[in-house]
Design brief:
mainly alpha
Length: about 60
């Protein structure tokens, strides 16, 4: 999945700020993509969370 496709998926959903990390990933259809990249491409996983509006301490906690 390209960064543009990820952004498009995120832009389809409103009200992300009131959701947890997992809720944001789920409603945007990015759960599987994140799970794959968290193992194989940590930088892309961090970028997905950043695009979802996750704060840096939480990104660090979720991608190690």
């Amino acid at each position: 999945m390209t960064e543009q496709q990820i952004i498009k998926s995120i832009n389809k959903v409103e009200g992300l700020t009131g959701m947890t990390v997992n809720e944001r990933l789920f409603v945007c259809g990015l759960m599987d993509e994140f799970d794959k990249t968290r193992i194989a491409d940590k930088e892309k996983a961090k970028k997905i969370l950043e695009l979802l509006g996750i704060d840096k301490p939480s990104i660090k906690k979720n991608v190690t």
